[in-house]
């Protein structure tokens, strides 16, 4: 018995050792980012390498904010993330409910038209969307960042799966009470899929916060960039001033990291669960 | 309630999503195919129908084939590495150990990190002269500007970002395998790797297959890390340039929208084939269960 227990302990020890090694690689870039952001420019490019800054300074943060349009990047990213989260959740929940719970002529075709775009790789949309924004006079505006993403076929598809799983009885009682479909949706169905709604909110938030290619294509003036596209321009502005680049990168990731630490279980479950249903 | 007014409610509830999708997503997808058959002049003010000319030019372009090979090489390196490492860590986490949720959180961190920010720190880690990697290894390698290494650097960053998420999916798959199966195998004397080979792996195959397809589809669209880590002036760019990067370059730097559309329409075809394949296999597995 004693031998078996210690063998078990030994194998647990090895498992922890491997998992810790993996964890170090996962967090190392973040640690390096933070350490570098507090160094002086010379410390960051010193040989042999210097791990800790001698006198941690916020100089790099001040420079990143003062010499680029960082506050604009924040505001634009926040605005885009807000629009790309709130509206798709509302619109997708409504549509998903109608597709799952109401039989109506043409529902199959409409649903097919909506989810068919999920098979198309994103870059396929960009040139036509760019031409469309250009015709609407929206190139280089914050509106162009979010307007096409007020709807989400993916969220519609995902939420429909959940509405399909709810039993009929609740709905029938409400119909007898004279509720119209919207009232049934709002007061009975929506609360039942709240965990799926949270998952959709998290996914939309992450996607829109971190997206790069579309903001890069549609906007070029500094006051209209998002954080991700703005970071790309910091590289050309500051070159090898590593502390400034790292200060910018850290400021860009901090909001999502804070949200993640507060709602970690929701994040992990939300993202994993959307993948398993999607 | 009569069915007419039920229909009216249904149409009202799907209207925003249906109209938004048709206008902003469905129509652009169709228009991209149309663009591939045009030649635009004066910034799109004049369009000529040129049939397959853009595609003929594309298929004769050595750079296109190189970009396609680069994209495929990335997929071939990135997907199996991610799957193997994610499965490895998922199996370790599935053993009943303390602190599982702490590891889950740490491994998930790259998933909530903006690719642009992660790319910038990787550039600094990979830097030839003052980079962390070279000083740890005691080497002096130009990881991201030497064409022998640039692709591997991109794959490493991709894998770093993908493990946490895929590990979770595989962990969920592992937890769906009934315990008694392992107990029966233990009675038969199976241990360690044999248990993994004869029970875990076969039952995990559907999960691994779908995870792989999703990874493949995502990997065929690689752009962010090439744009940010390699960059447009890097001498290693031709050996890592992907289809999507070439699309971006042709459409928005050289302003040749039609040639760009042709490139991305080829990618569309590749993705449709992959999705069709996934759909067929899904049917097969559902019946098999």
Notes on the protein architecture:
The complex is a heterodimer of chains A (278) and B (289). By secondary structure, chain A is mainly alpha-helical. Chain A folds into 2 domains: 2-60, no CATH class; 68-238, Orthogonal Bundle (MetI-like fold), CATH 1.10.3720. Chain A has 15 helices and no strands. Chain A is flat and about 75 Å long. The model of chain A has no long low-confidence stretch (mean pLDDT 89). With 289 residues, chain B is mainly alpha-helical. Chain B folds into 2 domains: 3-49, no CATH class; 61-288, MetI-like (MetI-like fold). Chain B is built from 13 helices and 2 strands; from the N terminus they run H-E-E-H-H-H-H-H-H-H-H-H-H-H-H. Chain B has helices at residues 3-35, 53-60, 62-94, 100-108, 115-126, 132-137, 150-175, 179-187, 192-219, 224-230, 237-240, 243-252, 257-288; strands at 38-41, 46-49. In chain B, a hairpin with a 4-residue loop joins strand 1 and strand 2. The two termini of chain B are 41 Å apart. The relative contact order of chain B is 0.12. The model of chain B has no long low-confidence stretch (mean pLDDT 90). Chain A: Residues 74-263 form the ABC transmembrane type-1 domain. Chain A: Its main location: membrane. Chain A: It is found in: Cell membrane. Chain A: Keywords: Cell membrane, Membrane, Transmembrane, Transmembrane helix, Transport. Chain A: InterPro entries: MetI-like, MetI-like_sf. Chain B: It is a multi-pass membrane protein.
Draw up the topology in text:
The complex is a heterodimer of chains A (278) and B (289).
Chain A: H1 2-37, H2 41-44, H3 59-67, H4 70-101, H5 107-116, H6 123-135, H7 143-146, H8 153-164, H9 168-176, H10 181-192, H11 194-210, H12 213-218, H13 227-238, H14 242-262, H15 264-277
Helix pairs in contact in A: 1-14, 3-14, 4-8, 4-10, 4-11, 4-13, 9-10, 11-15, 13-14, 14-15
Chain B: H1 3-35, E1 38-41, E2 46-49, H2 53-60, H3 62-94, H4 100-108, H5 115-126, H6 132-137, H7 150-175, H8 179-187, H9 192-219, H10 224-230, H11 237-240, H12 243-252, H13 257-288
Antiparallel strand pairs in B: 1-2
Helix pairs in contact in B: 2-13, 3-7, 3-9, 4-7, 5-10, 7-9, 7-10, 9-13, 12-13
């Amino acid at each position: 018995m004693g031998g078996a227990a210690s063998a078990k302990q030994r194998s647990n020890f090895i498992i922890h050792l491997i998992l810790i090694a993996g964890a170090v690689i996962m967090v190392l870039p973040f640690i390096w980012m933070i350490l570098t952001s507090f160094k002086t420019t010379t410390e960051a490019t010193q040989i042999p390498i210097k791990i800790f800054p001698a006198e941690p300074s916020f100089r790099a943060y001040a420079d990143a904010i003062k010499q680029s349009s960082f506050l604009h990047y924040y505001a634009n990213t926040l605005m885009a993330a807000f629009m790309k989260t709130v509206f798709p959740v509302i619109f997708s929940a409504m549509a998903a409910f109608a597709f799952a719970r109401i039989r109506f002529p043409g529902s199959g075709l409409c649903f097919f038209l909506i989810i068919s775009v999920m098979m198309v790789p994103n870059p396929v949309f960009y040139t036509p969307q760019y031409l469309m924004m250009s015709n609407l006079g929206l190139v280089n505006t914050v509106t162009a960042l979010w307007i096409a993403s007020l709807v989400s076929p993916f969220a519609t598809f995902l939420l429909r799966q959940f509405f399909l799983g709810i039993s009929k009885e609740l709905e029938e009682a409400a119909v007898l009470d004279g509720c119209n479909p919207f009232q049934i949706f709002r007061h009975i169905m929506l609360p039942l899929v709240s965990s799926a709604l949270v998952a959709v909110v998290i996914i939309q938030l992450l996607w829109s916060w971190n997206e790069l290619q579309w903001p890069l294509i549609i906007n070029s003036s500094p006051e209209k960039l998002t954080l991700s596209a703005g970071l790309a321009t910091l590289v050309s502005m500051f070159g090898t001033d590593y502390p400034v680049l790292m200060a910018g990168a850290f400021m860009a990731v901090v909001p999502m990291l804070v949200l993640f630490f507060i709602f970690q279980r929701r994040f992990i479950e939300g993202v994993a669960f959307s993948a398993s249903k999607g | 309630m009569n069915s007419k007014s039920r229909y009216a409610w249904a149409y009202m509830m799907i209207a925003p999503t249906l109209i938004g999708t048709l206008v902003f997503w469905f129509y652009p997808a169709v228009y991209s195919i149309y663009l591939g058959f045009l030649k635009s002049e004066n910034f799109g003010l004049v369009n000529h129908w040129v049939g397959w000319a853009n595609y003929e030019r594309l298929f004769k372009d050595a750079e296109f084939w190189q970009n396609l090979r680069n994209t495929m090489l990335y997929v071939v390196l990135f997907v199996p590495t991610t799957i193997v490492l994610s499965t490895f860590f998922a199996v370790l986490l599935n053993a009943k150990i303390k602190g599982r949720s702490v590891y889950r959180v740490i491994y998930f961190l790259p998933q909530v990190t903006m690719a642009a920010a992660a790319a910038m720190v990787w550039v600094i880690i990979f830097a030839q002269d003052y980079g962390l990697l070279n000083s740890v290894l005691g080497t002096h390698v130009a990881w991201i500007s030497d064409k022998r290494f640039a692709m591997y650097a991109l794959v490493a960053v991709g894998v770093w970002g993908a493990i946490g998420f895929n590990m979770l999916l595989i962990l969920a798959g592992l937890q769906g395998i009934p315990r008694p199966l392992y107990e029966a195998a233990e009675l038969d004397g199976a241990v360690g790797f044999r248990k993994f080979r004869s029970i875990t792996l076969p039952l995990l195959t559907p999960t691994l297959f779908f995870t792989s397809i999703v990874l493949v589809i995502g990997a065929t669209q690689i752009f962010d890390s090439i744009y940010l880590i390699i960059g447009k002036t890097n001498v290693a760019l031709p050996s890592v340039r992907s289809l999507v990067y070439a699309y971006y370059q042709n459409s928005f730097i050289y302003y040749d929208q039609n040639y760009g559309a042709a490139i991305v329409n080829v990618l569309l075809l590749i993705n449709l084939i992959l999705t069709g394949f996934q759909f067929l296999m899904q049917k097969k597995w559902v019946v098999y269960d």
